[in-house]
User: Fold this.
Amino acid sequence: MQFRAPRGASDLLPQQQKYWRHIERACVTLSQQYGFSRLDTPVFESSGLFDRSVGAGTDIVEKETYTFADRGGDLLTLRPEGTAPICRAYLEHGMHNLPQPVRLYYFCPVFRYERPQAGRYREHHQFGLEVLGDADPSVDAEVVELAWRLVSRLGLSDVSLYVNSIGDRQCRPVYLDALRSYYRERQANLCPDCQQRLDRNALRLLDCKREGCHQYGDDAPRSVDYLCDDCQSHWDRLLQYLALMGIPYQVDHRLVRGLDYYTRTVFEIQPLEEGGQSTLVGGGRYDGLIEEIGGRPTPGIGFATGLERLTLNLQRQEVPIDEDPSPQYLVINMGQAARETALDVAVRIRQQGTGAILGSAGRSLKGQLRQANALSIPYVVIIGDDEVAANSITIRDMATGGQERRPVPEFLEQL
Assistant:
C-alpha cells in the first residue's frame, strides 16, 4: 500500500519553500515596524471557545471543524481560525492589564473540513495580526494600511481593497430585520443553506456564492444605510483616514465576512481576476469577542491571510522571488584517502561560513561533476591522490570550466 497525503492537505516541497520564506520575511518585517509582537497558541483548543466566538450557527462550527473527545473526555477542536485563540491567550495571561492597545501577530496552521480547491485546503497556514484595546477608527485604518502594504511588498499587483461596515449590537438588529424581510419574499428560490441562514445567520445570505442566491444580493438592503450615530461616525472617519493615507478602496455592501464576531469595519483584499473566491486578506473589527469569551468589553481588530493562497498568486503573477542561499562548493573526492581529506576540507569550508556539500562516494569524476551541475553549484573542489600528497586542492569554475591547483591553507584563508 502506498500512502498519500490526506485529501485537503499537502506537502510543502523544497522548490516551494522560497515563496513561504519570502512571505514570512515580509510579514515579520512589517509587523515589527508597526509595533507587533509574536504570539503562538496551541493547535487545538476547548471546543467551547469556537462555539462562543465564531458562532454555533456558522458553517465553520456546524460543518467544518475537526472536533474530538480526548481520552479524558474533554471536547477539543483543531484551530479553525486564529483570532479566538489569540483573544483567549490575551485574557488568560493578563494582557488586558498591559498598556493598551496590545499588538500581536501569529503564524499558525488552521483546519477546516471543506471542499478542497485551488488555494483552499483542509489544512492551511495563516499569518494574522490583532490589535486589542483600542476602538478608534484610526486603528482600523492602520490595520488596513498594513494589509495593503503587505500585499504590495510581496510584489502582488492587480488587487482591490473592499470595505464595509456591518454596524454593531445597537443598529444591526434593525438591519437584519430589513434583510430578512427582503429575502423572505424570495425564500422559495434560495438554496438549502440560505433557507437555514434566513433565521439563524442572515448576514451570510449576502455571502452565498451560488448563482441563484448571489443575484439577490445586488438589490438587498445595505448595512451602511442602517448605521446608528456612533457606527456612522466611525465609518465616516475610517473612510476619511483611508483617503488621507492614499489607499484606494471600494465600498462593497455584500462584504460581511464569515464569522459571527465581526462588528463595524470589515475588509478584504482580492485579486481582480477571481474576486471573493480567492481572497488574499480578510479581516475586520470584533468589539464584542473578548466579552463573549469571558472578559470585560474590549475592542479589537485584525486580519488574516493564507500562505498557500499568497503563494498561488505569486506564482500566477510570476513575481520574481530571491532563491534561498545554496552551497557554493561541491567537494569532489576519489579514493578513500581523498574521502577523508574531503570530509575535513568540507567541514573547514563550512566553518568559514560558506556552504559546501561532500561529493557522493564511489562516483567517477564525471559523475560528481554532473552532480554539481544538477545542484547548480558554481565551484567544485577536486581532491584525488595527487592533491592529498601535495596538501592541495584543484578548484574548478563550473561556469567557465577553468581550474587551478592551490594549497589547502591558502584556499581556506582566502575564504
